[in-house]
Design brief:
Blueprint (H helix, E strand, L loop, with lengths): L2 H11 L3 E2 L9 E2 L10 E5 L2 H4 L12 H8 L16 H15 L3 E5 L2 H4 L10 H16 L3 E7 L5 H4 L9 H16 L5 E6 L1 H10 L13 H28 L2 E5 L4 E4 L5 H21 L4 H13 L12 H7 L6 E4 L3 E6 L10 H5 L1 E4 L5 E2 L6 E2 L1 H15 L4 E6 L11 H19 L4 E6 L19 E2 L10 E2 L1 H12 L9
Parallel strand pairs: 3-4, 3-15, 4-5, 5-6, 6-7, 8-10, 9-14, 14-15
Antiparallel strand pairs: 1-2, 10-11, 12-13, 16-17
Helix pairs in contact: 1-17, 4-6, 8-10, 9-10, 15-16, 16-17
Bound molecules: 2-acetamido-2-deoxy-beta-D-glucopyranose (2 copies).
GO molecular function: beta-glucosidase activity
EC number: 3.2.1.21
Subunit structure: Homodimer.
Length: 500
C-alpha cells in the first residue's frame, strides 16, 4: 500500500512539542537528528503471551497454564494463553510481518516446559525443540537476528510443585535447561537473555501473589526468589562464558525492568534513590558489583529487627556467591514503560514483612499525566530520559540495550496515533541520551503483535499488528504504528524529515 503517503499524513497530524510537569523538558521538541547507522531496531514477544498450543506436541504444563485454569478470577477477563496469538502455528506469519516492518532483530522466549515438560533433563521433547529450530531458521532466512530469552515467567508446574524459585535447587534446574538451550540453539543465536524481569517474577509471583504462581510471601519468599533468580542467572552466564562463548561468540545478559522514580520535591531525592535501588538496583547491583545495594541490606536489616526477626529477611550472598555474581553481563538491559513520583515518609509502622515497606517511601502519579489503557500506565516520556541518564551515572559507561518499551490501549484501533505518539516521544528522549554519549545500542518495541497481557488478559492491546482474539484464523492486521516503525527503521528519523 501507499506507505510513504500514509507516513507523511500521520506525522503531520502530531504536534511537535509536548509539555510535561518537569521543568527541564517543559518545551520538549522531538529530536531532528538521525539514529546512528549501527543502531539496531527490534520487536519483542514472549512464549506464553503469543504461542498458544499450551498442551500440544508434548508440551508440559507451566505455572501460567495452571494459574489461569484454576484461578481465572486472577485475570481481568478470565482469559488464558491457551491459544493466544497462535504463534506456535503462525510463526511464519510473524516473521513475514517483521520482515515487512524491517526490524533487525526479534526478541522472543523459549517455553521451558515445551522443551523439558517436567522441567528436568529426564524428559526432552523433540517436537518442542523442532518448533524453536524452525523459528530460528525462518528468522535466519529472512535476515532477522534472534535475541533469545531463556526464561520469561513460564516455570514448568512440576518444578513449582517443588517450591519453584523459592527452592535453591532451581539454580541447578535452570542451569541444566540453559545449557541445553545453548547446545541446541547457540549456533544460531548471538544474543541471549537468561531471565526476563526478575522483579516481576519475585514480587508479583512470590510477594504480592498477583502473578503465577500466586504465592503471597512479601518481604520473605520474594527475597529468596530474588536470590535464586540471581544465582541461576550467574550460573547460566558462566556456563555460556566457559563452555559456549569460545565457539559461539555471542553475548548474554539478564533483562531488568524499571519505572522512573522522580522525587516529588528536591528534598525527596534520597527517597527516590532508595526506591530506584529497591527496583533496578536490587538486581543490577548484584550482577554488576556482586551484592545487594547497601541501602537494601541496611533497610531490610533494620525493619527485620523492628519486626523481631532474629536475622535480616534479606538472605545474604556468601563471598563465593558474590564472586560468581559479579560482572555477569555483557551489556545492561532495560524494560521501561512508565514513571512515578516519590515522596519521603516517616518510617512505616511494622506489622507485616513487605518489600514495599522495606523501601519505605510513598509513590504517586500526577493527575495531569496522560493515561494509557491501564490506570497506572502514565505516558511520561522524560522519565525514560532520566532513567537512562541515571543508569549511566549509577553504574558507569556500559552498553545498554532497551529490551522493551511500548504502550497498551484498550480500543485496539488500527489508527493507533496514541501508540505512534508514545513511540516517537520515548524514542526521541532515548535518541537525546545517545547524543549525550550514553551507549544505547538497540531498541526493542513491545510488541509486534497483539498478545496475552497477563492479568489484563486480552483487554490491553500492544501490537503494531492487530489480532482479533476470537477469530480462529488470528490474522495479523497492520496498525498505523507498524508503518511508522518501518519509517523510523528505514530513515533512522522520528519525523518526516531530519536535519543532516
Ligand atoms: C531468636 O533468638 C532468641 C535468643 O537467642 C531465641 O530465644 C529465639 O527462639 C529466637 N527466635 C527465633 C524465631 O528464632
Ligand atoms: C472477530 O472474529 C469473530 C469470529 O470470526 C467475528 O465474529 C468478529 O466480528 C470479529 N471482530 C472484529 C472486531 O472484527
Amino acid at each position: 500500500m501507499g506507505c510513504g503517503r500514509a507516513v507523511f499524513i500521520f506525522l503531520s497530524l502530531l504536534s511537535l512539542s509536548t509539555s510535561d510537569g518537569d521543568d527541564e523538558f517543559r518545551n520538549y521538541q522531538i529530536s531532528r537528528k538521525r539514529f546512528p547507522p549501527e543502531f539496531k531496531f527490534g520487536v519483542a514477544t514472549c512464549a506464553y503471551q503469543v504461542e498458544g498450543a499450551w498442551n500440544e506436541d508434548g508440551k508440559g504444563e507451566n505455572i501460567w497454564d495452571t494459574m489461569t485454569h484454576t484461578r481465572p478470577e486472577m485475570i481481568i477477563d478470565r482469559s488464558n494463553g491457551d491459544v493466544a496469538s497462535d504463534s506456535y502455528h503462525k510463526y511464519k506469519h510473524d516473521v513475514a510481518i517483521m520482515k515487512k516492518v524491517g526490524v533487525h532483530f526479534y526478541r522472543f522466549s523459549i517455553a521451558w516446559s515445551r522443551i523439558l515438560p517436567d522441567g528436568t533433563l529426564a524428559n526432552i521433547n523433540q517436537k518442542g525443540i523442532d518448533y524453536y529450530m524452525n523459528l530460528l531458521q525462518e528468522l535466519h532466512r529472512n535476515g532477522i537476528e534472534p535475541m533469545v530469552t531463556i526464561y520469561h515467567w513460564d516455570l514448568p508446574t512440576a518444578l513449582q510443585n517443588q517450591g519453584g524459585w523459592m527452592n535453591n535447587n532451581i539454580v541447578g534446574w535452570f542451569t541444566d535447561y540453559a545449557r541445553l538451550c545453548f547446545q541446541l540453539f547457540g549456533p544460531l543465536v548471538k544474543h541471549w537473555a537468561t531471565i526476563n524481569e526478575p522483579k516481576q517474577i519475585c514480587h508479583a509471583g512470590y510477594g504480592i501473589g498477583i502473578g503465577a504462581p500466586g504465592i503471597t510471601s512479601g518481604g520473605l519468599g520474594e527475597y529468596l526468589c530474588a536470590k535464586y533468580v540471581l544465582l541461576a542467572h550467574a550460573s547460566a552466564y558462566h556456563v555460556y562464558d566457559k563452555e559456549f562463548r569460545p565457539s559461539q561468540q555471542g553475548k548474554i545478559t539478564i533483562v531488568l525492568d524499571s519505572d522512573w522514580y522522580e522525587p516529588g520535591t528536591p528534598a525527596d531525592e534520597a527517597a527516590a534513590e532508595v526506591r530506584r535501588q529497591f527496583v533496578y538496583g536490587m538486581y543490577a547491583n548484584p550482577i554488576i558489583y556482586g551484592n545487594w545495594p547497601q541501602v537494601m541490606i541496611d533497610r531490610v536489616a533494620i525493619r527485620s529487627q523492628l519486626e523481631h526477626f532474629n536475622r535480616s529477611r534479606l538472605p545474604d550472598f556468601s563471598p563465593y556467591q558474590q564472586r560468581l555474581l559479579k560482572g555477569t553481563f555483557d551489556y545492561l538491559s532495560i524494560n521501561h514503560y512508565t514513571t512515578y513520583m516519590v515522596s519521603a515518609i516517616p518510617e512505616p509502622p511494622v506489622g507485616h514483612a513487605s518489600w514495599d515497606l522495606d523501601a519505605g517511601v510513598r509513590l504517586w502519579q500526577k493527575p495531569e499525566w496522560e493515561t494509557a489503557a491501564i490506570d497506572w500506565f502514565k505516558v511520561v516520556p522524560w522519565g525514560f530520559h532520566k532513567l537512562l541518564r541515571w543508569m549511566r551515572t549509577t553504574y558507569g559507561d556500559h552498553e545498554i540495550y532497551v529490551t522493551e518499551n511500548g504502550v497498551s490501549d484498550r480500543t485496539g484501533e488500527l489508527d493507533d496515533f496514541d501508540r505512534i505518539s508514545y513511540y516517537r516521544r520515548y524514542m526521541s528522549h532515548m535518541l537525546d541520551c545517545i547524543n549525550e554519549g550514553i551507549r544505547i545500542i538497540g531498541y526493542t518495541a513491545w510488541s509486534i503483535i497483539d498478545n496475552y497481557e497477563w492479568n489484563m488478559g486480552y483487554v490491553a492491546h500492544s501490537g503494531m499488528y492487530y489480532i482479533n482474539m476470537t477469530d480462529p484464523a488470528r490474522r495479523r492486521i497492520p496498525r498505523k504504528s507498524s508503518y511508522y516503525y518501518n519509517h523510523i527503521i528505514k530513515t533512522r528519523c522520528l519525523l518526516s524529515q531530519c536535519d543532516d
